[in-house]
Design a protein that fits this description.
The complex is a heterodimer of chains A (370) and B (649). With 370 residues, chain A is an all-alpha fold. Helices cover 70% and strands 3% of the residues of chain A. Chain A is built from 14 helices and 3 strands. In chain B, strands 2, 3, 4, 5 and 12 form a 5-stranded mixed beta sheet that branches. Classes of the chains: A mainly alpha (370), B alpha+beta (649).
């Protein structure tokens, strides 16, 4: 099958998925090169370097068996809690929140690591619940118990976006673990009904304003709606084929804010047009399809849940970021995985991919054994 | 799943549930991906036009290039108002962040004096967001450059290379051309918020010709399409449409004469008007004291404004057009024309016993002149002759002649305002006083009114331009209309009066200066050139007893007036001089007229005389204005009442 000179470890890699990951990171490097006005500095080269290092981390993680992660789940969880506490004590303040630990090489955002840790812990928890217990109350309350500390610590930073991602991810995992459907439908209806009340009685005025501006960004084009409007201008003015590489005016003249991080999709779409944007969306979809495929193929309950949970972690990043830049979600600081400049999100995604690769390897081993 | 009260969950159907739910989530991901692609297509294709436009309007800014203002030049093409290249710094309130810090920084960079900083702060507080607030003008290049290099840290600061208005002759042309300034809110709104008006560095005419000829002087703005960053930094110029500068405005004025006349007035408060009596061209329209229009260009300080508006010599008033005076005896040449028109023989004699008895009232003359005919009566300025003959001619014919020779008339001139005074007549008095009879003894015209009018007193008030026009019309016999813009116009037609009438009156006026007249000391010292004239002394208040307004406080002294023309042999120039509170026409006004006319024929001689005067007065006009300002400031600081011209004499 394979040429003899290729070692098994290399040949066994999921090359299709890796091609997608390389393409996405490449798009990121090109976008960052252009955002810097046609320069490798300060972003593009660093992005490439981080990608290389973190890909190494992913390969490294993929060599472990899932049993190892299963056994170390609580240790990792405890480690992340410690890091979160350290962040609150020593962290760097940026964008009004204390969410980073300055490590020199990268600014580590422990809340990102916590996302992965929560998935593993949840998967482990549900994999140990006997099937007949899954519809019981005892399948729910412990989750609240070990979700509370990290969420509390992250809200203290305060980082609403990450909190939201963790909660969404948890709900999705509970759904996959087999909790009764009526719970989800029922609480969905309840939340829907409660939204107006929450808006009127719980949200502070500046939060209400954020929601209003999300609903109608043009009402305040120079104030809080600025990000949204400029992002739509960038995407909309790109048209079908875009303004051409290095020709984006919205990004080069700095009308588009955060063009190297949260709004990099808009910057790329301005230069590469609808075609470029749809290719990116398709790449992300294929990556997620691969991840969900790994989950469906997995034999063990723990592996299944971990794989699906990690794929969903990546999904929520992508979904919320893309909805935000297209004006379908409020502006929350969530980067586009692999493409946006920034170390922590990329590290998280690479850890996810590393674990997914590990499960994938296990799946293939199972298959060949049969 | 079948509905049961408690479904039995086994390992197998848990896998089944997971698979199904994972497929649902995977499907949801697919749906979302499609939705995002659709949304993107909607924005990028369907709404493409709209966002493209917005992207362009983000990227491209139109910048107006203010047009260079048209020059104002004199009859020989010499500059009266020109543009100087100028480095300036403005603040745009809209873009200003942290004004305290930026103003402090600018103060340091530009060495702004304290009261300028105060002015900028005040104007910032008042300015609407779009209106640029000038910080400093006429900056040396180094300071301008110091601001330019720090621009990224100074949002809202706009350094600019522009042109500013410059009047080489300063105060001498102030009332003639006016001045320019930054448009205010009313002016901006009046022009339908024309964007040009709020372009930094753009000025509009605020006074005088600068104001009335604004549209012609303004020119057409140019435009520059530039690419700018979100921070407002210019990236590159895309295209430029050059501005069209305003076309030059040639005046009939002789700049040299204008300046000479203004200087010759010295510290007096008064005016000099010189006309070309063949064409009506205004050669000189000087009014002093005046302000320096250059100081107004970049806004004047409160102190400066206070000093100007409180001065009792009214430097802000254009006395040549807006000063109104009883003409006194300068009226008599016109009255003489009326007498001739009434058929009175110029040789007819009236005996002057020192006055004229009308009923029980005695109208005084200045002397006992004995037998007088028209010629000698003009020369000696004998009131008795004019009382008697004026009464014989009647007010109707005098009033008609007055109007025909320019009194009570408003001329067709591009000026901000002219006060045209009163040429009284019987219907005028009736209309004016019938309703408010208390003001005068009786509303109908009386013979004593006629007598007063005949010597240029009573109801008559005129402005200096009208005096010059009368003088010019008598000198040439042409119906000249004063004009200030050098444009094509029909040649003036002769007035419908016999030549001999004009010659008789001109003969009397010749005698005034060159014979046994009232202005003998002011004859021209030029070979073969003589002038004819008429002195006048106008009372400021009623004569009480023997006091004739020849002494006492400055503001109660008589005005000195003089009208003249030259050369008598072949009249070319007509002139009027009014010296407020100068005490007498022959004493104050005629010597000025003599020097001004001399200048027209022999510049060197006139300048020599002026230089001598200026040494005597204590320096040039600019130096004296400066000294005056210093004295005013010192007096203000000392807390005394604002000083006036009294100690400046």
């Amino acid at each position: 099958m394979r040429p003899a000179f290729v070692p098994a470890a290399v040949a066994d890699l999921p090359w299709g998925m890796l091609a997608i990951v390389f393409a996405l990171a490449g798009a990121g490097i090109l976008g960052l090169y252009s955002a810097a006005g046609g320069s490798l500095f300060p972003w593009a080269l660093m992005h490439a370097a981080r990608f290389t290092v973190f890909l190494g981390v992913a390969f490294f993680l993929s060599r472990f068996r899932m049993q190892t992660f299963h056994d170390l789940a609580w240790l990792g969880y405890a480690g992340c809690i410690v890091l979160l506490i350290l962040t609150l004590m020593l962290g760097v303040i940026g964008g009004g929140a204390r969410s980073w630990l300055e490590l020199g090489f990268l600014r580590l955002q422990p809340s990102e690591l916590m996302k992965v840790s929560i998935v593993i812990v949840l998967a482990r928890f549900y994999s140990h619940i006997p099937p007949r217990e899954i519809r019981r109350w005892s399948a729910i309350w412990p989750v609240a118990l070990f979700l509370a500390p990290p969420i509390g610590l992250i809200l203290l930073q305060p980082d609403l976006g990450t909190t939201m991602l963790i909660v969404l991810n948890t709900i999705a995992l509970m759904f996959l673990a087999g909790l009764p459907l009526r719970l989800f439908i029922g609480s969905g209806v309840a939340v829907g009904a409660a939204l107006p009340l929450v808006y009127n009685f719980l949200l502070l005025p500046h939060q209400q304003e954020r929601v209003l501006i999300f609903l109608n960004p043009e009402a305040d084009p120079l104030g809080s709606g600025y990000h949204l409007t400029q992002s739509k201008i960038a995407i909309g003015s790109g048209g079908i084929f875009g303004k051409g590489f290095l020709n984006g005016t919205q990004s080069h003249l700095h009308y588009l804010p955060e063009q190297h991080t949260d709004f990099i999709f808009s910057a790329i779409a301005e230069e590469w047009g609808l075609v470029g944007g749809v290719v990116l969306i398709a790449l992300f979809f294929l990556l997620l399809k691969w991840g969900m495929g790994v989950a469906l193929d997995a034999k063990g309950k723990f592996e299944r849940l971990v794989a699906a949970g990690l794929a969903l972690t990546i999904f929520f990043y992508i979904a919320i970021n893309l909805m935000m830049v297209m004006g379908l979600a409020p502006v929350v600081g969530i980067p586009l995985p692999l493409v946006s400049y920034g170390g922590s999100a990329m590290l998280t995604v690479m850890i996810c991919l590393g674990l997914l690769m590990s499960i994938d390897r296990q799946n293939r081993a199972e298959r060949s054994r049969r | 799943m079948t509905r049961r009260s408690r479904p039995i969950v086994t390992e197998n159907n848990q896998v089944y549930t997971f698979t199904r739910r994972a497929l649902v989530l995977g499907g949801a991901q697919g749906v979302l991906a499609a939705a995002l692609a659709g949304r993107m297509g909607w924005i990028a294709v369907h709404e493409n036009e709209r966002w493209k436009l917005q992207s362009e309007s983000n990227r491209v800014q139109m910048r107006l290039i203010p047009p260079r203002r048209g020059w104002i030049v004199d009859r020989a093409g010499l500059p009266i108002a020109i543009n100087r290249s100028d480095f300036r710094v403005d603040l745009i309130p809209d873009r200003l962040k942290d004004p305290e810090r930026i103003l402090a920084e600018l103060t340091r960079l530009l060495d702004l004096p304290l009261d300028e900083v105060e002015r900028v702060k005040e104007e910032l507080a008042r300015a609407a967001g779009y209106q640029p607030v000038p910080v400093a003008e006429n900056l040396p290049y180094e300071k301008y450059a110091a601001v330019t290099v720090r621009l990224p840290e100074l949002p809202g600061v706009a350094p600019l290379r522009s042109f500013s208005r410059f009047y080489p002759d300063g105060a001498a042309v102030a009332h003639l051309v006016g001045y320019v300034g930054t448009p205010n809110k009313q002016e901006y709104e009046k022009e339908n918020k024309l964007p040009l008006l709020i372009t930094p560095g753009f000025k509009i005419g605020k006074e005088g010709l600068e104001k009335t000829m604004e549209q012609r002087l303004r020119g057409k703005p140019g435009a520059q399409r530039v690419e700018v960053t979100a921070g407002g930094t210019l990236v590159r110029e895309l295209s430029t449409l050059q501005d069209v500068s305003g076309s030059p405005l040639p005046l009939t004025v002789d700049a040299g004469l204008q300046t000479f006349a203004a200087r010759r007035l010295g510290d007096e408060s008064g005016s000099v008007v010189v006309l070309d009596c063949l064409t009506g061209d205004i050669l000189c329209l000087a009014s002093m004291p005046a302000y320096d229009p250059n100081n107004f260009t970049d806004g004047i300080s409160q102190n400066e404004w206070k000093m100007l508006s409180q001065d009792e010599r009214k430097p802000l008033l254009n006395k040549a057009l807006n000063g109104l005076y009883p003409p006194g005896s300068t009226f008599k040449p016109m009255v003489a024309m009326a007498l001739l028109q009434a058929g009175i023989d110029p040789k007819a004699r009236v005996n002057c016993p020192g006055g004229f008895q009308l009923g029980n009232r005695f109208f005084r003359c200045l002397g006992r002149h004995g037998p007088m005919n028209m010629h000698t009566a003009i020369a000696k300025s004998c009131n008795t002759y004019f009382y008697a003959m004026g009464r014989r001619a009647g007010i109707d014919i005098i009033s008609a002649m007055g109007k025909r020779l320019g009194f009570g008339q408003k001329f067709d001139l591009p000026v901000v305002s002219q006060n045209y005074g009163t040429m009284p007549s019987a219907p005028w008095k009736k209309a004016r006083y019938e309703k408010s009879a208390k003001l005068v003894e009786r509303p109908d015209w009386t013979e004593s009114d006629t007598l007063n009018t005949s010597i240029g007193q009573g109801f008559v008030i005129v402005n200096p331009l009208q005096l010059a026009v009368m003088s010019g019309r008598i000198a040439s016999g042409l119906d000249i209309q004063p004009r200030i813009l050098r444009t094509k116009h029909p040649a003036p037609q002769p007035l419908p009066f016999p030549k001999e009438h004009f010659e008789a009156v001109r003969g009397g006026m010749w005698e005034v200066v060159n014979g046994a007249g009232t202005a003998g000391r002011s004859r021209l010292e030029l070979p073969g050139i003589e002038m004819g004239g008429k002195t006048g002394t106008a009372q400021v208040r009623r004569i009480t007893g023997s006091q004739r307004g020849q002494s006492g406080a400055w503001k109660y002294r008589d005005h000195g007036l003089f009208v003249c023309f030259a050369p008598t042999a072949n009249p070319r120039y007509a002139c009027s001089v009014v010296i407020e509170h100068g005490m007498g026409g022959s004493r104050a006004a005629a010597p000025v007229a003599k020097d001004v006319l001399t200048f027209l024929f022999d510049k060197e001689k006139a300048m020599a005389s002026l230089t001598a005067f200026e040494q005597q007065w204590g320096g040039t006009m600019a130096e004296r204005m400066e000294a005056r300002a210093q004295r005013w400031l010192a007096a203000k600081a000392a807390g005394t009442a604002a000083p006036n011209g009294e100690e400046a004499r």
